[in-house]
Amino acid sequence: MKKLFSIFGDPVSHSRSPLMHNSVFKNLHYEACYTRTHLLDGAKLKETFFSLGLSGANVTVPHKEAAFEACDEVRGFAKTVGVVNTLIEEDGKLIGYNTDADGFMYAIKEFGEINSILVLGAGGTAKALVSRFLQDNIKVSVLNRSATRLDYFKNLKCECFTWDSFKSRKYDLIVNTTSAGLKDEYLPAPEDIIIQVLDHSKFVADAIYGKLTPFLKLAKEKNKTYKDGADMLLGQGVLANELFVNKELKKEDIEKYMRASFSL
Ligand code: NDP
User: Is 99 in a helix, a strand, or coil?
Assistant: First the structure.
């Protein structure tokens, strides 16, 4: 029987995950189909997953923390961060994983050695990335609009700022993990702060993909080396697909057809 997969999010219409996974399934003759589900209430994630008869799913903004709560079992790196972006059905149970962080490490490999990072935002993606950076002994600072979500990062001994308390230093890399610029034209922080940090940084990355966000536009104007979230998306997608097909397909083949879908 054909397996069904989906992405859950709000918004979800921008997601390239269906194209990416379907390109793999189709080209490698794997009997499966991947769709998208607009989910407004994260608390309904588990119920919706099972009512659709899914074999697996991805979860995007703003439901990744709700996905962690919804799981019967969480495995690997997702346990460290409390954030789940990949779900698998196993014997009627919901199993959660996080493939975002390793996907991002794959994306920034080409920047070479990175020793200090400023993370903009303190949501699910920030949690996953920061915990992964700390594993590699990278010095991490976090800047977020509101103070509440910073507690998690303070406990990890990261330098934390809100817009009001921010003091800029030099960073090897600045990463935007906020959703500012996703469906609007906002910068992730006030313009004077963004300009200041761009002037002090070597590389710039945005988790948002498929558009030049106002943040990346400024980085481009300042002649910084930058990248959007496409390679991160590819990296997390390859790792998620491996879980979906339970390693029945070769990783190189998954990557080949997933990458090919980016030009569709
Ligand atoms: P969350 O909802 O968990 O967190 C959102 C964060 O963005 C919070 O820190 C929030 O701040 C901040 N924020 C939202 N709006 C604004 C704004 N207008 N100005 C400043 N800060 C703002 O989201 P996720 O972590 O799940 O996702 C974040 C982004 O990363 C999304 O755009 C998503 O598409 C992208 N992403 C891309 C991936 C890829 O593969 N390329 C993978 C994963 C995510 P506050 O606490 O003050 O509300």
Answer: coil
pLDDT score of 264: 85
Return the amino acid letter for 70. Answer: A
Candidates 1.20.1200.10, 3.20.20.140, 3.40.50.10860, 3.40.50.170; CATH matching 3-98+231-263: 3.40.50.10860
Atom of ligand 1 nearest to the CA of 127: 25
| Paired tokens of 27 | 């080209």
State residue 29's pLDDT score: 98
143, containing H or E segment: strand 139-144
| Closest approach atom of ligand 1 to CA 149 | 46
Average pLDDT over residues 242-260: 96
Which pTM was predicted? 0.86
Q: CA 171, 174, 179: angle at the middle one, nearest 5?
A: 155
